[in-house]
Amino acid sequence: MTDVINLINRQEVDLSPSVPFHFEGTVYKPSHFPASVDYYENNCLWLPIRLNETIYGIQLYPHPQEPTIIKMAIFSENVLADEEIRTIISEVHYRFDMDADLQGFIQLADKDAILSATEKKWRGMKVSCAFSLYELLCITIVLQNAQVSRSVNMLKNMLTTYGRKVRFDNREFFSFWLPSEMANITEDELRSLKVGYRAKSFKKVSSFFLQNPNFEYQVRNLSKLNAAKELRQIYGVGPATCGYLLFEKFHHYDALDYISPWETRIFGMLIFGDQEVPSDVILGYAKDKWGRWRMLAAHYLFEDIFWRRKTESIRWLDDLIRL
DNA sequence: CATCAGGGCCCTG
DNA sequence: CAGGGCCCTGAT
Predict the structure, then answer these.
(1) Which of A121, A182, A258, A303 could hold A239 in an S-S bridge, CB 3.0 to 4.6 Å?
(2) For residue A187, is pLDDT > 70?
(3) A217 in contact with nucleic chain B (CB within 7 A)
(4) pTM for the whole structure
(5) CA of A299: how far to CAs of A86, A236, A253, A292, A304, in Å?
(6) Measured distance CA(A162)–CA(A210) in Å, rounded
């Protein structure tokens, strides 16, 4: 796609997330690999967002004076209707879990030796996913059975070939392709972008969303168990991907029922100082100590160590990540 | 130079 | 429910 979508209209609105709200911890997750689908810098997030097939540009930053208010600038091609603004606000609230009540977690962490300091440091950090379910699935597809550098390359190839270039606030991004845009693309074409056997997943996931356009919104209302049942029916969604979706996208704070080998080693170190601890021991520990907050607790520990990695060298973590 | 496992999942037996 | 195969790549 050569044409660039220029979002020239700018409109500001105020958001009032539930407090406490840790802006930086919520909108930027250092454990995620960087992609040109959003950008975070210095307490400000830029994000193209696609709703009802229309692409908007979102800029989020804390209000300079009012600590409980988050400012959102919406960039658009056309002047926004009130209804559109309401839709965007409500979607952003969902994606950054702005209505969450984490009081139970705060109380739990306060009495927990492992969590206490980390929770205080990041108090108000919400689980978030800047992307739609379909977009997140595309990310998890490139994540599977590949090292990070290859995942980055696969997503970049897909975006530059099928994504839409979006410009707002003097910045350029790629917005994801639509499920319908995958329909006429062959597996061989996808394989030429070095995605390998994942080509089939892209095709199948896209046709699933084409047939079930409201799937994400239906799953939002389901219990963890029922949501998992629905998600696992999608081709390419196994236990690891399902866990990511349940937690990051659908905010099931207890979605820690499976841990992949590489995460097992990291959690082993974080909890027991030993990377050889088997995953079922870690799962049992988390369930016992953190109960219905166990994935959120794990998330706090996980993101904290990745934050620390930005300013200090953590040898054992470098060895385990293998970029 | 070759071999190999990787931020999983599908499919088969 | 265990295990082989899968695309491609950087590490060894």
Answers:
(1) A258
(2) yes
(3) no
(4) 0.97
(5) 30, 24, 9, 13, 8
(6) 16
Q: Which of A110, A109, A147 is nearest to A298 (CA)?
A: A109
- Cα A135 to Cα A27: distance, rounded to the nearest angstrom: 17
Q: What is the band of A234 on the pLDDT scale with cuts at 50, 70, 90? A: very high
Q: Which two tokens stand for residue A152?
A: 């980055």
The first and second tokens of residue A281, run together, are 């021991």
In angstroms, the CA A126 to CA A98 distance is 8
The backbone torsions φ and ψ at residue A125, rounded to the nearest 5 degrees and listed phi first, read -70, 125
Q: Is the CB of A88 under 7 A from strand B?
A: no
Q: What would the DSSP string read from start to end of A262-315? A: HHHHHHHHHHHS-TT--HHHHHHHHHHHHGGGHHHHHHHHHHHHHHHHHHS--H
- Asked if A198 CB < 7 A from strand C, the reply is yes
For A246-296, write each residue's pLDDT tens digit. 999 999 999 999 998 889 999 999 999 998 899 999 999 999 999 999 999
Strand B nucleotides within a 7 Å radius of protein CB atoms: 6-10
